Each structure stands twice: as C-alpha cells, then as structure tokens.
C-alpha cells in the first residue's frame, strides 16, 4: 500500500493522533477532508450551536489552508446534523459567512442521532490548486 499523503493543520496534530485519524489526505489531485466539528484545541465542544458551527468551519478552513486550498476549492460537501428539524435553520443562518459566492459546491445533509457530543459536522472534498502536491 502506498504511503498516505496526510495534511495536518498547525497546532492540532496531537488531537488527531490521540483519536487515530488523519484530518485530510491528498490523492490524485483531490483533498479528502475528514469531518470537522466545532472542537476547541483540546477537543472539547465549543458551547452554543452557532459558535460550534463557526468553529467547525474555522477548523475546516485550517485544514484546507494547510493543503494550500480554500473553501473556493471545495467541490463536495457532506454535513451531519443532530436533530436537523430543530437546528437546520439556525445552522444555515451561519453558513453564508463561510460558503463563498456561486457557483456553490454540491451538498448532502444527513440527520444523525449522535456526533460524539457535537451538533454539527462538515466533511469535504476539494480540488487541489494547480502545482500543489497531489
């Protein structure tokens, strides 16, 4: 098996090592980013739904930046929401600050019952910029 080309954002490698997963992997010109939640540096949830969503996007953007990408390079988004009937509108009020301009990436929203103490998770696939390590 080939060695995975893993991307780590600054200051969070210990968290990923403790939980035994890679924040992102480069492969064939794409960046596959693991689900990002609204966790603080120590891994604990950011209190408050809207603050947790903002922190999830900030964590996502840190992973993207570590690979030389931004949200503008994102082509596929999957979000997981605990109790989406209750929380979707509040979450979606925060999203435009991070989403960028049209054309937007595609998205799949999934309602779940549990996210390890979090209410929102976002995972993406991004196209690596030309000249970036593939």
UniProtKB/TrEMBL annotation:
CDD domains assigned to the protein according to its UniProt record, in alphabetical order: YjgH_like
PANTHER family: 2-IMINOBUTANOATE/2-IMINOPROPANOATE DEAMINASE RIDA (PTHR11803), RUTC FAMILY PROTEIN YJGH (PTHR11803:SF44)
Protein name: RidA family protein
Organism: Pseudorhodoferax aquiterrae
């Amino acid at each position: 098996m080939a060695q995975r080309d893993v991307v780590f954002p600054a200051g969070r490698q210990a968290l990923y090592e403790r939980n035994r997963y890679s924040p992102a992997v480069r492969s064939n010109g794409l960046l596959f980013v693991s689900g990002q939640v609204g966790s603080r540096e120590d891994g604990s949830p950011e209190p408050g739904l809207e603050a947790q969503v903002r922190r999830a996007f900030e964590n996502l953007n840190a992973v993207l930046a570590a690979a030389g990408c931004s949200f503008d390079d994102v082509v596929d988004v999957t979000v997981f929401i605990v109790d989406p009937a209750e929380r979707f509108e509040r979450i979606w009020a925060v999203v435009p600050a991070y989403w960028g301009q049209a054309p937007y990436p595609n998205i799949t929203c999934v309602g779940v019952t549990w996210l390890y103490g979090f209410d929102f998770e976002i995972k993406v696939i991004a196209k690596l910029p030309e000249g970036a390590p593939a």
